[in-house]
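Record filed here:
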Amino acid sequence: MVKQSLTRLGVAVGGLALTLTAGAGIASADPDYGPMINTTCTYDQAVAALRAQNPMFASYLEQSPPNVAFLHQYVNSTPDQRVALLHKVEHNQGAQQAFPIFQQMFTTCNNF
């Protein structure tokens, strides 16, 4: 069930991310996942940050129960568990384009 949800999340997030980043250049350097892994934010803080920074992506995320469940699981996980979750979805279509959105969300969510 979790693997299927992760796959759906990756495909869903990837599709939206591709739409949002059409025409943008893709960096070749490995991204810094530190803010995503070491976050102390709650689900509500993360979603509030996402709504403020990217309302279209937030709306898309919130309309998908598997995505909501994944984000709940993610924020309630330990940093080591988050690394494992990221590794499960990092090669899904569009994940590399979606990760910067989540990285920004987790970098600023303590402000919400």
